[in-house]
Amino acid sequence: MIRDQELLDQLLDTLARFVRERLIPNEGRLAEEDAVPAEILAEMKEMGVFGLSIPEEYGGLGLTMEEEALVAMEIGKTSPAFRSIFGTNNGIGAQGILIDGTPEQKTRYVPRLATGEIISAFCLTEPDSGSDAASLRTTAIRDGDYYVLNGTKRFITNGPEADLFTVMARTDPDDKGAGGISAFIVEGDTPGIRRGLADKKMGQKGAHTCDIIFDDCRVPAENIIGGREGQGFKTAMKVLDRGRLHISAVCVGVAERLVEESLAFAMERKQFGAALSEHQLVQAMLADSKTEAYAGRAMVMDAARRKDDGENVSTLASCAKLFCAEMVGRVADRAVQVHGGSGYMAEYAVERFYRDVRLFRIYEGTTQIQQLVIARNMVREAQ
Ligand code: COS
Q1: Is 142 helix (H, G, I), strand (E, B) or coil?
Q2: Residue of the nearest CA to atom 24 in ligand 1?
Q3: What's the CATH number of domain 239-382, 3.40.190.150, 1.20.140.10, 3.20.20.70, 3.55.10.10?
Q4: From the CB of 240, is ligand 1 less than 6 Å away?
Q5: ∠ CA 126-152-325 to the nearest 5 degrees?
Q6: Core-most of 47, 154, 237, 327, by most CB within 10 Å?
């Protein structure tokens, strides 16, 4: 749903200019320094990108899912690590509180997430619990007015810098499944939290992940999301429904950027007496990538609109994530191929994107988990 086309167009224009003039020229630096440059971070905060999807009453822009998807596609046209730092505040770092939090929890934390004053992270994955999220082992045992958290969370995006964590932990050790899990808001400076060393990753340099270790970490009981035990797994799943659509939109943006890079290179580079873009085998790669990026865009926009209309889009979000994450992998592969030897060289953006996009098929639910969710929902609906 688009609430005000003119305002949205202004926002998209501003973001497109920011991506073109500030982010793309700094992609190399982001990768080399493995950090978002401080001045760019400050500009992002100034622009309000930390609060894009946060409701206006909490200081955000309150974008609908359709608007958010269009914004994510625009931001997708540069290195995904730029998005990671603020995308989490809009997405998995804030949505648990927004979807299921109490009014007090929202008032206390969300406005600071919207401005970027605090950075957030979502702690679901563990060393022995990835795709099988309901098997997580971190415990949160009630002790008077507190819960005591013990356990390790793994590959936590923004882990090294996060000021606020949404943590899924087992409050009922007798219930080994989803029903025993609760979600907590945990402030980053709470005693008993340790951060592991930043992980060395294949790509997405500038976006950081690490282990978050809870060692007798005492969290006020009032910080259990929604004030009720046993709801944490469902909260996490609802957060991921939205997150998966957002990531799908980012994949579309990246794919469109790679199509642009491929076309520009193919028109410039000459072989056998003609530009690459005149050779039919290269044209086939360009056409396939264009078509697939367009299919991804159409899919994401349809699912986003249906979400705004109040439809349960759990299946569609998984369909979009499955298609778009795989699609951008194929597009990145073709982009390298169109660039030939140059595509293997670090000075060309496609080399970096080729590594960056690999993560999309894994995080916020692997391709195989999306297949599982889609098929399970199909069977359930048919029964
Ligand atoms: N929205 C709301 N509730 C949901 C839901 C959703 N999208 N998906 C599941 N639930 C509910 C179910 O309805 C069920 O509730 P009841 O017990 O009341 O019926 C409960 O949650 C448990 O669901 P289910 O039985 O489907 O859980 P499973 O353990 O079988 O597995 C999958 C669910 C595999 C889908 C889940 O573990 C998953 O998404 N794994 C991937 C995790 C992931 O994406 N990790 C990425 C890291 S975070 S960046």
Answers
A1: strand
A2: 178
A3: 1.20.140.10
A4: yes
A5: 30
A6: 327
